[in-house]
């Protein structure tokens, strides 16, 4: 199993707009329907009003790699460029 904790450091005051854009695109729904997906959930950081945490779990690294080749993932990159200052990823295999 592979878990990624992805922290999106959004531009000041843009976290809610970024999250809404993700919802409008259907990122969570599409990702949860992919082969090997075990979890795909967003969390709002209580101590940082501009951070959004994504916790995604995949059955295998190959499943996560296939996720990165989807059209939805490509469109997500456009949203990140528009709304985020930076992205931090912590990866865990278990």
Question: Would you kindly provide a brief summary of this structure?
Answer:
This protein is of the alpha+beta class and 94 residues long. The protein contains 4 helices and 4 strands; from the N terminus they run E-H-H-E-E-H-H-E. The chain has a 4-stranded antiparallel beta sheet.
Describe the structure in your own words:
The chain has a single domain, classed as Alpha-Beta Plaits. The chain is α+β, with helices and mostly antiparallel strands. The mean pLDDT is 97. The relative contact order is 0.33. The longest helix is centred in the last third of the chain and has 13 residues, at 71-83. Strands 2-3-1-4 form a 4-stranded antiparallel β-sheet. The chain has helices at residues 15-25, 27-32, 61-67, 71-83; strands spanning 2-10, 37-44, 51-58, 84-93. It is globular.
Features:
94 residues, alpha+beta, Alpha-Beta Plaits, 4-stranded antiparallel sheet, 4 helices, 39% helix, globular
Helix percent reads 25-40%
Number of structurally distinct domains: 1
Largest sheet: 4 strands, antiparallel
- Mean pLDDT across the residues is 97
What is the alpha-carbon Rg in Å? 13 Å
Number of strands: 4
Structural class: alpha+beta
Regions with pLDDT < 50 over 5+ consecutive residues? none
Helix run count: 4
Order of helices and strands: EHHEEHHE
**CATH fold annotation:** Alpha-Beta Plaits
CATH class, named Alpha Beta
Query: Beta-strand percentage?
Result: 35-45%
What is the end-to-end distance?
Answer: 5 Å
